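anyone else get weird line breaks when pasting these?? whatever heres mine. first is seq + tokens for prot A
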Amino acid sequence: MARVIIFLTIVALIAGMVGCNDHTSPTEIRDWYDLDAIRDNLGGSYLLINDLDSTTAGYTELASPTANEGKGWAPIGYYDDLFIGTFDGQDYEIGDLFINRPDQGALGLFGSIGEGGVIENLRVVNSIMSGGSHGPSTAAIGNLVAYSLGTVTNCYSSANLSAGWYTGGLVGYNGYLATVSNSYATGSVKGSTYVGGLVGFNEGTVANSYATCNVTGRPFYFGGLVGCNEGTVSNCYSTGTVTGMADNGGLVGVSTEGTVTNSFWDTETSRITTSAGGTGKTTTEMHDINTFSGATWDIVAVADPSTRNPSYIWNIVDGQSYPFMSWQSVS
């Protein structure tokens, strides 16, 4: 018996050593060439170690308006070849991304991420994207992710998007069991159906997030935060203008099977008084901490925009600002 125990112990130690050797450090992303190479290993772990923009090596060839015969950036991952790895932006920015692919869907920095895929702590700014204009067969565009079955958290998007179906400032299509949290989007979003300032179509979870995007859609289902909600939305808000023909909402355009709790939109800045979920508030009320603390948000008042209390998800300058993420930079 003692020999058996010793043998099993040795086997366990060897297995542990092998397991340790299997753990590799994340691949560092320092330029557009490194970023483009992610598509060669969609299950890897990646770490952005500096900002990427139009001055970074590889931009002209891979992400500029002249790249790929004028189509610009080729999104990482597709519907049948999903990104299932981890990408940590470490609060750095990826800027000046250009995409013009009118006959293509799944357009964004990442085209599609699958279950287990994680994108976190990343800022995608000053993007210009257009495409997916021929209906649902070529649908989904999002500045960060077009089609997600994974997790997006602590991310920010600033973009000018123009597309067809399933268009979102951050994520185009947030699928069942997918999550968007602690994130926000600014800029402008334009599409035909299922258009949202943060998420175009939601089947999963959207929590502790907001959008200030100006949203334009026609003919159906567009909202300041989410175009169509069939999942859950909680502790969120939106402030952007919402313009279109029908089935539009200050926060949510349509919510057929979903739930919306503890969420708000600004009826003055959005210029719309109806929504398929959420509560409309005046700008003054949206600057009042009591609006949000009364809805059990994890929020605290701070003295000014440069002050942070990271112990809370949300910070606010009471009476002066909308709530903002405790991690974000506010001018």
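and prot B, same format (seq, then tokens)
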Amino acid sequence: MHVISLDNVPRSVPVMEGAEKVFKQVPLSKADDAPNFVFRVFTIEPGGHTPLHTHQFEHLNYIIEGSGVLVAEKRENPIKKGDFIMVLPGETHQYRNTARRGNLVLICAVPKEYE
């Protein structure tokens, strides 16, 4: 068993070309002997966004805080605190914080091979 508070997880600037005003935390990972998935937490400041990208694995998201849009397959889908999201392999997507103030914070679970 492994328990950790997000407050105790270091924040880093992710290495993702096209990301702006994004911070990443990894509270549960391969280093914790996670057998299948890792949890990453992304904080996107107002006006920030992840890159518009695609990859070969699914990821499951939960919005902890804030609101914004998920750009997926050329559509903008409003997202807000409490929403669950599944992005399938091969789907082009981008998270944007469209709020004037307040962070968009989301949990992103991915297979551990793609941490």
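btw re prot B: Residues 74 and 92 are 8 Å apart (CA to CA). The mean pLDDT is 93.
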